[in-house]
Amino acid sequence: MDSTDNRSEFPEVPNSPANDGPSGSPPPPPPPDRQAIPRTSAPPPPIPVYMPPPGVSAGLPRRSVLSGILRFFLMLIFVGSLILNLYLGLIVYNCMMQQREYRSGDKKNKIVLIDLQGTINMNTAEIIRNRLKLAADDKHIKGVILVVNSPGGQVNPSDMINKYINDFITELPEKKIYAAIQQVSASGACWATASVPKIYAQTNSTVGSIGVLYMNFVLENTLKQKLGMDPIVIKSTRSPLKDMGSPFRMPTEEEKQKITQEVDKIHARFVEVISRGRDIPQADVWKLASGDVYDGPEAKGNKLIDEVGYLDDAIDDMAEALHLESPQVIRFYKQPTLKEMLIEKQDTGLNIQQQLEYWAMTPRIQALWLGEH
């Protein structure tokens, strides 16, 4: 095959400018199949990823029992933290709300009202003690007024309140303390407030009942006839009076005499407290110590109170005595406990053991007025 045939079978590759023909004319364009195809920047194909089926951890061991227990305890800690924060928040809220305004005025000169309300027991004494301490520690509180609505109650708590008031008067002579009787101040309430320097009572208030009583309920027949129970009490040989005052039997004549002697001793102490606190001769107090009660004017005539008037009269009188033009009057309120705030009290029915414990903790000798109140 000659050279001519080879050129026709294989087309010439275009020469560079240096290899152009003698005429210098440009070479012919390349055939279509030889034209350069433009490149595109397409992303590489995705790498296949293995997805484990649901419920199977990828490359990790299954949760153990220990992990579940740990999560349970962490959840308990979290819930406990929420409850604790709620409780602390309620405490802060109640601290803010334990003082409520009764009458607006100068906040740097305050008169505080402290309620002595209901039957007096150990809880009452603790509340009065704490509120008197709050009043003593607050430099802006210039005076205290006890607002009394109580028929009395247990002897020892009444005497304790009397001591707390005496301590307040002795330790803080610059702060005044009054009492304002609204509905009733009888028996133990008179004992508790006997040392208050100035006592107000309304015209129709009930005041007095200076006396002591013993109360007990004998359930002997009820247990036998209604419940078919016959309690057995065995005492040590040398303590025949160990179950004196038991609700399971009637007291003997000897026990009645001993109980009467104890009641009389407490009555004499009651008279002594009234005599010392109200500055009345004991002979005159004994004339009032029959257990009788008096209204406001009668109580003033018997020197059991100082003035007949209302709470606002006592406030105005104290403000004038303290030379306060317009004092703010506030009232202390009891903070509820965690149980009271979060747990509703439920009636569990008859619980004999619980009733016996309550009976054992409740004194039968009381300075209590049993009249209408």
- Please compute the radius of gyration using only Cα atoms: 46 Å
Number of helices: 12
CATH superfamily of one domain: 2-enoyl-CoA Hydratase, Chain A, domain 1
Give the uncertain stretches in residue-range form: 6-10, 16-23, 344-350
Report the β-strand fraction as a percent range. Answer: 15-25%
State the name of the first-level CATH class of one domain: Alpha Beta
Mean pLDDT: 80
Overall strand count: 12
Question: What topology does this entry show?
Answer:
Elements: H1 3-9, H2 65-97, E1 99-103, E2 106-117, H3 122-137, E3 141-150, E4 152-154, H4 155-171, E5 176-186, H5 188-193, E6 198-201, E7 206-208, E8 213-214, H6 220-225, H7 253-278, H8 282-288, E9 293-294, H9 296-301, E10 307-308, H10 311-321, E11 327-332, H11 338-342, H12 352-361, E12 365-368
Parallel strand pairs: 2-3, 2-11, 3-5, 5-6, 5-7, 6-10
Antiparallel strand pairs: 1-11, 4-12, 7-9, 8-12
Helix pairs in contact: 3-4, 7-8
